[in-house]
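Q: what sequence does this backbone want?
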């Protein structure tokens, strides 16, 4: 068997549904990276932590420092429990995304909490983390970072679509006979859908059943589709700040029932995502929690009838981002490029991430 490297990847997304952990073994075969997910677990946040992370957008100074420290301790605690639960051994290092609290690349600023050096000491393992800051310093968006993994691990698909707190897509283009990866955030998804259904006392719209009961409101749909972001060219990325400034104020202008709100937003998401598919895309890999939203999947398929939307097994569907952040850490560990300038808009491609040793 080819020499392999075992990495624990951690991802915490803007939908606040929990911390995803995956232990992944990587090896090379015929000059291509291969992987096997050996263990994976999603650990929900307590109500208190959901509120702290949601309100963290507005914290500064000592309060922000305390939140960062507490979240770093939580990350270490959960990774320790994950290692014990699955009796993992021979782990080479941990690769942690942390949690994006603030993302303002146009101001040269992005912040992922939970990436403190104390992780390495607590875990007694090397830790690779804080992948986005360097890219923003190089003039990039700091996002999306997953496309290098899409290219090297999932290159047989015409495009890779992730339906998380926001949706993002990546695919290869040929410009001037040169292969180039293009990727960007398409639209909000779970961050908005989960917020809209919360007044019903539900954490999410299971299968899209509530949205399916609603009616699409034409004026709201038009207003959302006319948001300037959708006319911008890549590279571009979305954050909670954009929702608060641009998206939610439009929703607030229309007094609709929750099912009608959901139906309209789902239609908006489906239209915006389908419009990003490459013209000749035959098969798109779809992962992330939004792939369980059957109604959204149906509406996307309706707008892209000639493209197969391939949803993989549940483990890959749920843990692809944790897997790829493990892979980003591996590339950084080997000092290989793990951020594509064509994707983020940085001045050059680079190997990003801090490395902390125990």
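A:
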């Amino acid at each position: 068997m080819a020499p392999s490297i075992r990495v624990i990847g951690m991802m915490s997304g803007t939908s606040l549904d929990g911390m995803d952990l995956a232990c992944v073994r990587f090896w090379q075969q015929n000059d291509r990276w291969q992987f096997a997910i050996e263990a994976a677990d999603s650990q929900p946040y307590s109500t208190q932590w959901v509120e702290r992370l949601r309100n963290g957008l507005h914290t500064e100074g000592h309060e922000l420092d305390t939140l960062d420290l507490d979240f770093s301790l939580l990350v270490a605690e959960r990774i320790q429990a994950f290692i014990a639960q699955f009796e993992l051994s021979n782990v080479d290092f941990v690769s942690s995304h942390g949690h994006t609290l603030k993302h303002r690349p146009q101001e040269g600023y992005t912040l992922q909490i939970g990436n403190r050096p104390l992780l390495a000491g607590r875990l007694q393992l090397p830790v690779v983390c804080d992948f986005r800051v360097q890219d923003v310093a190089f003039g990039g968006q700091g996002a999306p970072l997953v496309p290098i993994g899409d290219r090297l691990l999932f290159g047989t698909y015409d495009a890779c679509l992730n339906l998380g707190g926001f949706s993002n897509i990546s695919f290869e283009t040929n410009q001037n006979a040169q292969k180039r990866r293009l990727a960007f955030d398409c639209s909000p998804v779970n961050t908005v859908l989960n917020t809209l259904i919360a007044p019903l006392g539900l954490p999410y719209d299971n299968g899209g059943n509530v949205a399916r009961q609603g009616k699409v409101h034409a004026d709201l749909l038009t207003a959302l589709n006319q948001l300037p972001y959708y006319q911008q060219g890549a590279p571009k990325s979305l954050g909670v700040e954009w929702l608060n400034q641009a998206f939610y104020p439009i929703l607030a202008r229309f007094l609709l029932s929750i099912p009608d709100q959901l139906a309209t937003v789902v239609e908006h998401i489906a239209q915006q995502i389908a419009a990003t598919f490459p013209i000749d895309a035959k098969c798109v890999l779809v992962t992330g929690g939004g792939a369980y939203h059957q109604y959204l999947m149906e509406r996307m398929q309706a707008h892209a009838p000639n493209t197969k939307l391939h949803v993989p097994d549940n483990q890959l569907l749920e843990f692809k981002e944790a897997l790829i952040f493990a892979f980003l850490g591996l590339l950084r560990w080997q000092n290989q490029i793990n951020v594509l300038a064509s994707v983020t808009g940085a001045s050059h491609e680079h190997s990003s991430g801090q490395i902390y040793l125990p």
